[in-house]
Amino acid sequence: MDWLHPIYLSALAAVPVAVALYIWAAFKRRAAMKRFGDFAMVRQLAQSISPRLRRWKSAFTVVAVALIALSLAGPRFGTKLKEFKREGVDLVIALDVSQSMLAEDVLPNRLTRAKYEIGKLLDNLQGDRVGLVLFAGDAFVQCPLTLDYSAVRLFLDIAAPSQIPTPGTDFGAALNKTVQVFTGGANKDNPDADHTRALLIVSDGENHAPIDDAVKAAKDAKLVIFATGVGEADGVPVPVYQRGRRVGFKKDKDGNTVLTRLEEDRLQELAEGGGYFRITRTSSSLPEMADALKRLDRQEFDSETFEEYEEKYQWPLLLGVVLLILEMLIPDRVMGRVRRPGAYVATEDEPARKTPLDLPENGGEGSRVESPASVAQNA
Question: What domains are there in the chain, each with its CATH number?
């Protein structure tokens, strides 16, 4: 036997409190009867009230309180072994953190909006292992494959262009680093070659290096590549920050302002075997990728065996409710008149006996109290 919420066993303290209240109420009633008049006479006047029924009603209430307190604690009986299997795909998110991702055609900027949408995607994933790769002119593994999405969010939140000093955008570096995550390198303890492998590239599409060899290596590693374009097709300047403050916009060697725009062609070409999504100024289709991953071949990562208890809280709760209903249905008064042993009972042939309260105060006719024998003779 076990308890789901053992802290609620403290509610059993209400049982002695209820008993004490009933005892206190009984003493208060007895004291009130003594103040009312002669105790024996008052008890005879209140013969219709049954002390035994009152005690039963009190007992039902006290037991009901105890049973409801036990049901709150959640009693659990018996155990059975249950196996839980984790199934999903291996997904690496390659996030572009180059300077162009600071452009503000998507508010507040491309990088911040991309991190927000990736977070929404994580909310929709179930059982998939996720890793994070950051890239610009170079790439490195920010977070290896893990089922701990909170760790992925932590590394995602701190992603910034300052983490990669090499300028530019190199899709090839991102692809090669992702292949290393799946085949070894940063993930040596979990080769898992049979698992479905997926790569999500989140970028504005600007690439400054050849990627043919990297794409071939990704296909050889059986990667399913998805891509997400961030930004708008209209050119916007690239802001430059120093110590957290914007000091201007990026210039070329001739002093002209450099403009960056979303280049979808390269991203769509990369995502030919998977799917392409967009993050625009007013909408995003990236969270829909969770459905696309569910359509892939999902493999079992691991399984866990744990003990499962059978909840039995409903039985004490039901019994407690039944006792409360019975307490309300049972009256504390006995129906009909209760006659004391030896009490006089009037019949049709014999009128009711007059009591001293029925006699005239001035003593006249009818002031004499007749005995039962004289009454019989007069009859």
Answer: 2-74+313-343 (no CATH), 85-306 (3.40.50.410), 347-379 (no CATH)
